[in-house]
Amino acid sequence: MTAAQRWLDGYIRAWETKDPADVRAIFADDAEYWFRPDDPSPLRGIDAIVEMWRTEREPTAPQHDLRVLIEDERLAIVTGTVAYPGHESYANLWEVHLAPDGRARRFVEWYMTLAKPAADSPDAD
């Protein structure tokens, strides 16, 4: 298993548990968390990231299909989709800038809201 896949597995675990220890296991102490590439005020530092994950409320349990697209020892690019049933679905591309210990020192989300299927579409709920 690669460092990027270990990081992604840890991210999914932390996302599901919201356990501060799980979040600390994937983000460096001085990490930056960018909610979008042009974020005017990204989160800085592990305590701010832990607090955000602890208090963030999602509309429903997310369903995700995420995978490592490319990686080297310093950067992983993760792609895939995340759906919140009954709410929005997103196409994602994440930049994960890795520290030597495998934790993210910088995380940047790139995402787009996916169009909802037309009511008469076979894909509609």
From TrEMBL:
Pfam families (alphabetical): SnoaL_2 (PF12680)
Residues annotated as domain SnoaL-like: 10-103
Protein name (record): Nuclear transport factor 2 family protein
